[in-house]
Amino acid sequence: MRRDSQFVKSYIHEIDKYVHKGYARELCAEEASIVKPTTWYLLHFGVVNARKPDNLRIVFDAAAKASDVSLNSALLKGPVKAQSLVNIFFKFGQGIIAVAGDIQEMFSQVRIRVEDQDSQRFLWRGDDSSQPIRTYAMTSMIFGAACSPCCAEYVKNKNAARFADQMPKGVDAVQNKTYVDDLVISFNNVEDANKTIREAVEIISAAGFQLRKFVSNRKVLEANLNGSSNVPRPVINLERQATADKILGMFWNTTTDAFEFHFKFFNISNDILQCKRLPTKRELLGIVMSIYDPFGLLANVTIFAKFLIQALWKQSIAWDDELANHLAAQWESWWLNFQAVKTFSIPRCYSSLIPSADSIQLHIFVDASTQASAAYLRVKKEEAVKVALVCAKSTCAPLKAVTVPRLELQAAILGCRIKTLLEEGHEIRIDSTTFWSDSQTIILWVRAHARTFKPFVAHRIAEILTSTSPDQWRWLPTMLNVVDEATRAMPIHEFALHSRWFSGPEFLHQGEEWWPRETILTSDEYSNEEITSRHLLVRYRSEDRYDGELHADELAVAENCLCRLVQKEAYQHEISLVRKKSPLPKISSLYQLTPHLDEEGFLRVCGRIDAAYCLPISARRPIILPTKSHVTRLVVAPENTPPERQPYEERGTPTVLDTRNT
After folding, report:
1. Model-level pTM?
2. Alpha carbon of 346 to those of 213, 262, 423, 640: distances in Å?
């Protein structure tokens, strides 16, 4: 303290303010000499928020231990009473008119019983070391106590419950639209907003709290609510983080009524932020963790950084080692592209059509590779259609090899959980919910009547059917699956509202007659986890099915179909790029194989062996199959495989194993 006179001045000012407002009191010598079993002295220190360097905040450390005991260890945390931050934000996007405000010094307004104040003692003597040390006790709740959030929320809600009959809308605002001490709410008209906010102010004041500093996208309403107060805060930070030096960012611009993304990386070297040197694994993780995106609106962008971190784990890179050289260019490309997020914004309100909409639909897209899901609201009024991204979630596939159908199943589970989250978090009427997947296997598993699944599949299908019905699941081609963007390692993305990630796939903007039509068969024969050649042959035989031995040409057709299906599941993105004659990303497992598609739709190797004209084309351009696939093991045909299971070897059709694919 002696080294910083301004720090000392601010610290003394804060202590004096606590005493002046009655939040703390000085104990007389007689009181201080009394020691009870519940007597406890709190450590305290000052914290300066990097966003507000002029504001010092005193922290009373209830977690500090003496003889392995702390105040928090003797307190019960209590149940979580606060509303979910995500649910608050979901409701915030429903209405055309939005209002936000905060409760002044909420924790400090809650008085502690006199007999319990002895557990909140602290020592202080100002800046004069020659003065005797004085003993104080906090008379109100402190921020660091484990029970403070629960107690403050209980007091706020208990008080509001007394007004349930007289002011139901105001009570709902206080209890369900307030995140800790921040009121965040939206309405469909100014009159309703004005009445509800004034009711909330009256309810809050009855408990000794003060609801103040209102901001709104309607400036007349904002001025009316604040009275004579002038609160010039065009961009509002709605983030709630307890760590002072960890600055994340979710900002609401009240002028444009849009969410903006402002990220500051205080603990990251400027050399890294300016691409003068590569980040270490520790620093890369710090950058990713500093991106505050509670809705997952940037999931299609942040997934690439997660891929980089996973690649570092695969290579056993130490925490303080820099990225490997082959990842350097990808990191730079992604980081430079990510800077465009500073100028990007997304509307707060889903759609102005919601109050008078003819129908409101929820569409959830799922995809594997990684496990990803994105949810869109489709709002229709007469001929007008508005599609808005509500939330998304993406996670990297596990390092341990998992089959593509199982990854697709995990993605479907993620979609179901997002659906439950959205239903609980919104108050608008949702007329229908549709799930979209480009995996035929998942669609058929969900629709299957005979449940002869392995436990892994059976348990997850049961969870899916608990919250959804089979007729809610629809298939679509991979190229139309918008969530595919959040499963691919693409370092460059477009930050634009008209992109399909933010505005949804094109077909949702059209009538339902233009939506993708299914081209799959709904048969229990396809519901088994492992598809056999005989099952596939059903699709190619005549309608009059028969038993008996399979012929060589039938086996060849079946295995060709199997190989195409395996390639489609493992290399959907690569096949799409090859068809478009676009280059593969370097991170692709097929990059070094220069693949191409033949006339039959097989993905084959194209390399220097093409010059060996003495070999048949099937030998010069072998097909590509993933190493971990069960079909690949059958095609390779080990020595103990019977001759009838070796048609490829007989036909001289070699197979290249993609050993990098997991």
Report:
1. 0.74
2. 24, 13, 22, 60
